[in-house]
Amino acid sequence: MKVMIIGGVAGGASCAARLRRLDETAEIVLVERGPFVSFANCGLPYHTGGIIAREQDLIVANEAYFKVNLNIDARTRCEAVAIDRRAKTVDLRYLDTGEVTTESYDKLVLSPGAPSVVPPIPGIDQPGIFQMRTVPDARAVREWIEKGSLFLTGMSKYSGFQTARPKTRAVVVGGGFIGLEMAENLVHRGFDVTVIELRDQVLAPMDREMAEIVESHLKHHGVSVVLGDAVTAFTPREDGAIKVATRSGTEFPADIVILALGVRPDTALARSAGLEIGKLGGIRVNDNMQTSDPEIFAVGDAIEVRDTVTGAWSLVALAGPANRQGRIAADVIAGRDSRYRGTQGTSIIGLFDGAAAWTGASEKALQNAGRQDYEKVYLYPNSNAGYYPGAKPIAMKVLFSRTDGRLLGAQAVGTKGVDKRISTLAMAIQMGATVYDLEEAELCYAPQFGSAKDAVNFAGMVAADVLRGDMPISHWGDPSKAILLDVREPAELSVESVAGAVNIPLRQLRERITELPRDRDIHVICRSGQRAYYATRILLQNGYRAHTMSGGMLARYHRGVLDS
Amino acid sequence: MKVMIIGGVAGGASCAARLRRLDETAEIVLVERGPFVSFANCGLPYHTGGIIAREQDLIVANEAYFKVNLNIDARTRCEAVAIDRRAKTVDLRYLDTGEVTTESYDKLVLSPGAPSVVPPIPGIDQPGIFQMRTVPDARAVREWIEKGSLFLTGMSKYSGFQTARPKTRAVVVGGGFIGLEMAENLVHRGFDVTVIELRDQVLAPMDREMAEIVESHLKHHGVSVVLGDAVTAFTPREDGAIKVATRSGTEFPADIVILALGVRPDTALARSAGLEIGKLGGIRVNDNMQTSDPEIFAVGDAIEVRDTVTGAWSLVALAGPANRQGRIAADVIAGRDSRYRGTQGTSIIGLFDGAAAWTGASEKALQNAGRQDYEKVYLYPNSNAGYYPGAKPIAMKVLFSRTDGRLLGAQAVGTKGVDKRISTLAMAIQMGATVYDLEEAELCYAPQFGSAKDAVNFAGMVAADVLRGDMPISHWGDPSKAILLDVREPAELSVESVAGAVNIPLRQLRERITELPRDRDIHVICRSGQRAYYATRILLQNGYRAHTMSGGMLARYHRGVLDS
């Protein structure tokens, strides 16, 4: 059996290695159009930032490794240019020689990935504008930065001389993973960074109000974030820099520009071979990773996958799913009935000293899928016991089914313990856990690692309190004629208060309860929602129509949660 | 309804607070024999070490808080001395006045906790010997340390003068949570610390070979660990210190001694009231937390609970379960059918820059429960992507059912990411996950937080490879007449090799395979087990009887995993 694998990074490399474990006799050919097989593309921004010092560290395995250890024929700078499905052959072009050969296959695996979107903006080809998708991209950015100063030829204090000016201004176009990681790494390299994002938020998979915490944290670390604006032109400036002009009429000077507008499945080869393409533009596969031609498999960023929560097709460019898909394709080729379960989209991004992460469906994904039966809560539990030094709040949004309590999604932003909570909740979603299961979860607790009621337990308790009717909730912005009751202490109100809210501190509520009307809805506010819950319990049991404002004042603006 | 709650720390305080949320009208009395309600006993060692600076930080809520915010009558230094179940009364003694009153109840909740075991060792009452269970204990230790120097009155260089000698030598008796936490914190305070443990390992809930990694790490940080020895006497020394004599005939000088021999359920009150006591010596309760008298509930460290994996009764002194039990008792008292699901024993302990953690059953717990159907694997995945600076290995042992692949237990020791992996696996066990589910888990991955194949995925893959028959495994110490095949590189063998093993580096295995016999079992060794797996696959497919030595050389001695 001869297996050709097109694309040698995450999915393709995993498929090749797995197949060799399962079949010593198969002839395996792995072709990669770039100069490296199996490189760590998730590390590229950190290499440009100098955190990963050596380019060599990004190379997981080279062609010799594949040959010697795996008996796999790996070929770099080799591009598949056509598939003849009837003849079961692939035309390969060797980029260094231009030679084209035709090679037969018994099984074919496509792992072409998803190249960066590069829109036809005028001036986009001039020097100093980069993508960040390959090792050569990272090398080019490093060289550009390290090449040193631009020369300022205009008037200066010492008029008439050329003045060396270090590169200090960066514009990152796009506020997704790569864009924000590059923003951070360019700050590490001493740049003033501006991120320009077309949408009204960064990190599109998150819900907007959670992304606002990220934006606030980026600003806290000196990154300018421009939302709802698009680059219309790049033009050279007299000082050697690039003028970045936007739709809103703003101009940003930049000594370097990073294009990070997202990725798009590379389906050219699949399309020309007549394979089925999904509505989102990715290659369509079945659970066995087979395309519409059962002899041809596809894995990784180029395919469409089922979202495990909403059931919708989606495009997910993540290394973990790509690796698993590669393994599954290998299993199936080796004669096993291995099936891909779909993707729940678990993701994390580091943000200076913090992180943002999510798993499962966002609220907008649920809305897009037409789900009406969900509820959400906001909470701000500590990363670990409050009495142990260094405890930090984690801003969390948790989505769950009103019908059966099943966990649907979670988003978190914080400086400590975010990855743990979202990984734990990802496992919960995978296993079909309800918020009642989260209440009872038994997680690691010592004061430096968690709390006796961990953030995950707390999320379950808050959500379950809603479902059991113990805590009717309301959300900021919900249309309502309710009375607002603020149960914080007067000193807290002096910092920030809500116009029109009645103030009765929680500790006085029992004795002053008659000041409130029984025949109106009361939305109770405190700092984070906890005291409001306590107040809600007191009010409900005394016959009042109380609702807790989920997340309290912290959920009102979100922005300051991490950096206050 | 009048509810009396005996014991005001984790379980009792949680019960009281929860009950108030559910019932505004109940009369709730919370009595605590110590001077504080609702204090953070998990923080005590870190307070003595100076990490938690102020005693006040350990006090979660005081009596005034309970009164003002919860309308709960909390009474400290008040001990319940007798229960009259027929009259439904409790006799309370006020420790400051000696006064005894009789108080009625409708429902009674016992949360007496589990005091430290203090064996009748001669000399145990002398100054300088402490327990670590209460805020006053911590205060006493701090005062003893800070009181400064002992005076050396024997002969010194300047003979005839008293010489001030700082307290520098500590003996900790017991190698459990409190003992090891105290050892670390005494190191922080500048002490030379010796831990004396009766068992042949520290941290009894772990399997011994995993505890050896902990012992090695403690030694790496300067803590002496003496196993299999017991203190027989404490006697005063001339220099003002304490001589700690042990059964083995060794003597340790100590300027301070911490007794941390574990805890025993406080069942005096329950026994005298005729409530059922389990075989392990804890109060027996049903899923609703009711004792054999349905009007009396019991929660926390004093009760026996079902182990969710083995089904066996067990004693678990952990804050998380205690809090949940308290909530459940409150629910049931308030008329709800809330049920405790049992305990899976998830625990973590910080160890200087590292941690040890576990969840579910240990191998010895499975053996004690008579389970024959389990298998185990050892692995040493990185905390995060190896190409990102700061990645550290995590030593993991994973136990699972050979029958259906269900995850039964996991133990981990490492310097980074241990809490995340065990919390994630705890959720997996809670939800009945199999090792096949772990393979497919979609966890947070960015290079600073994890790997595209996370440690949890990797655990699932290794275990599933065993169950699918792709990787027959063997373990060090298994009786066997197998040939040992070491597939490491010669340079690695020069550091440490296995007597009698044949060496064929993995990269040469295909061409040299005929050097091996087809008619004998071959146990394949490498550093961590990964290359041995690759070799096993090659051998099996060529008709050889190969087994991977699980965990490779790292599992042979375990000790150096963290600190090499």
From TrEMBL, chains A, B:
Where the record annotates domain Rhodanese, the positions are 478-561
Statement: the UniProt record of this protein carries the keyword Oxidoreductase: yes
Annotated SUPFAM superfamilies: FAD/NAD(P)-binding domain (SSF51905), FAD/NAD-linked reductases, dimerisation (C-terminal) domain (SSF55424), Rhodanese/Cell cycle control phosphatase (SSF52821)
Sorted alphabetically, which InterPro entries does this protein's record hold? FAD-bd_OxRdtase, FAD/NAD-bd_sf, FAD/NAD-binding_dom, FAD/NAD-linked_Rdtase_dimer_sf, Pyr_nucl-diS_OxRdtase_dimer, Rhodanese-like_dom, Rhodanese-like_dom_sf
What cofactor does this protein call for? FAD
Gene3D superfamilies, per database record = FAD/NAD(P)-binding domain, Rhodanese-like domain
List UniProt keywords, sorted A-Z: FAD, Flavoprotein, Oxidoreductase, Redox-active center
Signal sequence interval, chain numbering = none
Q: Which family does it belong to?
A: Belongs to the class-III pyridine nucleotide-disulfide oxidoreductase family.
Q: Which PANTHER family match?
A: NAD(P)H SULFUR OXIDOREDUCTASE (COA-DEPENDENT), PYRIDINE NUCLEOTIDE-DISULFIDE OXIDOREDUCTASE DOMAIN-CONTAINING
| Protein's UniProt name | NADPH-dependent 2,4-dienoyl-CoA reductase/sulfur reductase-like enzyme/rhodanese-related sulfurtransferase
Q: Which organism is it from?
A: Kaistia dalseonensis
